[in-house]
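hey m, so remember when u said the tokens were messed up on ur end? i reran from scratch. heres the input so u can diff it against urs
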Amino acid sequence: MNMDKIFEQAIERDASDIHLIAGNKPMLRIARELVPVEDTEVLNENDMNEIYDYLVRGNIDKDEMFNETRKLDTSYEYKQIRFRVNISLSDDVPTCTLRLIKNTLPPYEALGLPDIIKRMTFQPQGLILVTGKTNSGKSTTLNAIINEINETQNKKILTLENPVEYRHHSKKSLIVQKEVGKGRDALTFSNGVQNSLREDCDILVIGEIRDKVTMEAAIEMAESGHLVIGTLHTKSCAETIDRMINFYEVRDQASIKYLLSALLKLVVSQRLLKGRDGKLVLVPEVMVVDNIVSGIIRKEKISVSEIEDAIQSSDKGSIGLINSIATLFVQDKITLEQAKAQVEEKNIEVLNRTIMQMKIRRDSNKN
């Protein structure tokens, strides 16, 4: 199996991912479409075992981790291009997914991220969350935020990642990046967070908050006077609040609601759509936790629609999902069908009304 050929094509064709699965040709994901690698054969079991050996490179810790857990998250470097690697099993045969990590981050402005995110990173303490489903661009956003802080603020930034994707170099800030996992810099995210209290960092970046232990450690860090930036796999700002509270037993939820209402500063929930020009466009929903949102979080029963209404009507910098979608349509970046597919049926009329209002404002500004 000529892995060099696969890597070369992935880089040349600007693929986001490589999929290597027995019984299929090697596949690339290019602008959300799956396309086969040219001039390659269907992969068989022997190919997949060879690819496993090629990617693990005889690392005993990685091999042990894979045999114990039946999965492995690691990284690989080819011609100074980094790949995030996931290896798992299908029918007892290794299957591999590789994500290309670009060497240069796009400028913060080029990502379509609202300015409010940048401004909120100047908070002395608290919790900022970047959320979204898999392949929604969370890692790119997180690294763009780190880079922006690095260029504009004099801080010590500590990151915990699995694996480390983009390699940052200290500029105005001092950056320490740690890889999480067996045989790496920190055994678990929660261990890394707990130790960071002794490392005199100003800003802690947690690559993924996936369990209650990590969440508790992040909250403790924010409580002790640090800014914590993390990611969660949730599809909206309201669902993020719900997920965080549901990490805890019912008897503990009142106290965690109080803490979150005080410590949570900003939630950015994002999704990516294929635009009219074939390129991916960012659709952000932004929730600034003002007094109204804090009050909703502290309520005995949290209402998703109440949070959505608070975001939509906020004048503190929040951006509702419907507003984001309508803006992209009015700017001719997405189709009306795409816009409608992103909102629930009950909100289609609100979307139509928002689009009409934006068009009227745009036309009046022209005149």
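this time it looks ok to me. The chain is about 40% helix and 25% strand. if urs says something different then somethings off w ur setup not the seq
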